[in-house]
Amino acid sequence: MEKHFAVIGNPVAHSLSPAMHRGGYRELGVEADYLRFQIESGDLSQAVQGLKALGFSGWNVTVPFKEQIIPFLDELTPEALQAGAVNTVKVAEDGRLLGHNTDGNGFVRSLQDEMKIEKGMEVVILGAGGAAKGIAMALIPYDVKITVLNRTPERAQQLVDLIKSQGGDAVVKPWEAGDWLNSAQLLVQTTSLGLKQEQYPFSLRGIFPETWVVDIIFNPWETPFLREARELGCRTLNGVGMLLYQGALAWEFWFGGQAPVAGMKKGLFEALPNKE
Ligand code: NDP
């Protein structure tokens, strides 16, 4: 019997998840389809019940519903509890709705394609929103040292407090270039600044050229921030790998076993608007 999956959000027309998951179905010959639904905030509860009633096996959740959906679910995985947000829902065999979060571990998996995350590594996270939180939580088991910089310092402090409450090592630094520039080994840009091709409010001049610099945005393919890092000699990575692996981990939550990453990547890259 064909299985049905979807992504819900608002806006959602730009979502590449259908192409990515369908690429996976093609690789394994799975009888399934993956749709996208734009939903108004006031309709979320009905939409969740509707998806369940229509026999959907699971769905992804994107902006702005990752936190709003929690009251409509029956159980959260440790990853969703820790992140306080859900990006993947599975309808269990008994009909219960299970909420999971694959964003942070998706980021870690994409990083591991490129580098080894070493114990004690100096990691600087720019931003303190939902994505920063998921990434920080997923990095805690690697015993890295995290520095958080955010435009709104109170939010940076909240994230640092959360990291520490989970056994991690973290400090807040001011929202500007500073001594971390020549000690960071991994710099992760998680703010939404690059989406509109906006320049970063500070320069990376002086950054240690061995630093890995990641911007979790991938449209534009290379944000002004990532371009500056590359021009300064740093190794760079955009957010497309994070998208791929959060999808692969969602697949594994739904189906079990190993996700068909090659097929998902093929589907994703065929649908990507600007790949350079
Ligand atoms: P949130 O709204 O939760 O957080 C936004 C962050 O950006 C905050 O730190 C906010 O700072 C900062 N910010 C926003 N505007 C500005 C500005 N003008 N100047 C400085 N800082 C700013 O969003 P998310 O964390 O969910 O998402 C952040 C980005 O990550 C988005 O662009 C999203 O597309 C991308 N993303 C990519 C994923 C992938 O798979 N590649 C997965 C998830 C997200 P402040 O606290 O001061 O408001």
TrEMBL record:
It is an enzyme of class 1 (oxidoreductase). One of its GO terms (molecular function) is shikimate 3-dehydrogenase (NADP+) activity. Residues 239-266 form the SDH C-terminal domain. Residues 119-166 form the Quinate/shikimate 5-dehydrogenase/glutamyl-tRNA reductase domain. Residues 7-89 form the Shikimate dehydrogenase substrate binding N-terminal domain. NADP(+) binds at G127, A128, G129, G130, A131, N150, R151, T152, P153, E154, R155, I216, G239. PANTHER family: BIFUNCTIONAL 3-DEHYDROQUINATE DEHYDRATASE_SHIKIMATE DEHYDROGENASE, CHLOROPLASTIC, SHIKIMATE DEHYDROGENASE. This is Shikimate dehydrogenase (NADP(+)).
